[in-house]
Amino acid sequence: MASSVNSAHNDGGVASGDGGEPVGGHASGGTTPHYVDALPLSSQGRTARMPWSSRISLLLVAALVGGLAGHYSAPGSSNSSGFTVNTVNTAPGGAVLPSGMSIPALVEKVVPSVVSIDVKGQGSEDQGTGMIVTSNGYVVTNNHVIAAAVGGGTITVTRTGSTKSLPATLVGTNPIDDVALIRINGASGLPSVTLGNSSALVAGDAVVAIGNALGLAAGTPTVTQGIVSALGRTVTAGTSASSETLNNMIQTDAAINPGNSGGPLLDSHGNVIGMNTAVAGTLPDGTSAQNIGFAIPVATIQSLLKSLKAGASVVNHGAFIGVEIMSMSPELQLQYGFTISSGAVVMSVISGSGASAAGVKQGDIIVKIDGTKIASAQDVTSVISLKHPGDNIKVMVVRGKQHLTLTITLGSQPG
What we know:
Elements: E1 5-7, H1 103-110, E2 114-121, E3 124-132, E4 138-141, H2 143-146, E5 154-159, E6 166-174, E7 179-184, E8 206-211, E9 222-238, E10 243-252, E11 264-266, E12 272-280, E13 293-297, H3 298-309, E14 319-320, E15 323-327, H4 330-336, E16 344-349, H5 354-358, E17 365-369, E18 372-373, H6 377-385, E19 392-399, E20 402-409, E21 411-412
Antiparallel strand pairs: 1-12, 2-3, 2-5, 3-4, 4-7, 5-6, 6-7, 8-9, 8-11, 9-10, 10-13, 11-12, 12-13, 14-21, 15-16, 16-17, 17-18, 17-19, 19-20
């Protein structure tokens, strides 16, 4: 069944998941789901509002229990009006995570390192979130959040608890993995996030998502809680103009909304284990997906930081191998009895793709491409990004006890 996924960035501060246009994508089991990136407001015919200045009007409906409005009277107490209400001054208790840390304590620890991002360029305005990763102002975010600035636009950030916009400079971009690095101009002594271990995640782990949801107000991020719903997801997200296929994604039921893109997905200790990137949208029949969001594992982000800091700008030539993959992990190795501990596990093969024609099978472990060692799903993406549609590549896979070398003709990214 086809579905849609919307990236969690925002243009103009209004949820942009509505009206997304489907683009080609694939899921395991031979189905062909369609995913959609969150569309900028400008592409939806909506008017971008002035940053941080407008309000969202909500219609609130009261829920009545039993059709009666109740009241409380203190036992044995009365007053001249016959109307007495019980009150207490006790502070509400914060939800407690498995680590023993309360969510309010976790938020207090992390939010100083979270920034709201506003990007203006070429007649459009996008809003998202970023994470401060170094004390001298380097901020990691999604590439689609800052895409409008690539052609000469402007980027400003607002730190949590502040209303002052600070200018930032684009440092490096990686559209293939949807990761970018910016730097707050002249910054020093800033608090930074702590990167955790996304490779140790298992389904059911508690997570907290923080971000500039809906662009409601810069410097006042939204906090949501959930669990890791699944690992190793392959998601194709895009606008009407472009699309991207992201492998090895974390799926979570923590609410992720437009504007959350680039914000942290945290473990129960407050360490970043992912970057909020996309959210499921609407099926072609109009059915809405519920509580399905996706985050880029922090291990992928860490592998890119060095090249991004050096000013790398990755060009996607559009080559497509035709497999959905997941990095090898101890859990996968134990579950399926794999004999090797690293590589990219083929979770499914896309029908009609070059990989399918070459005989790649579900459960194969990719360990080399054109002589380059493959230790993770990220390595496959990096190698394929340098190729062009029509190129032939030599792929070494481990299948049970066999080591096979297959020749794959690369196709084009689904449109």
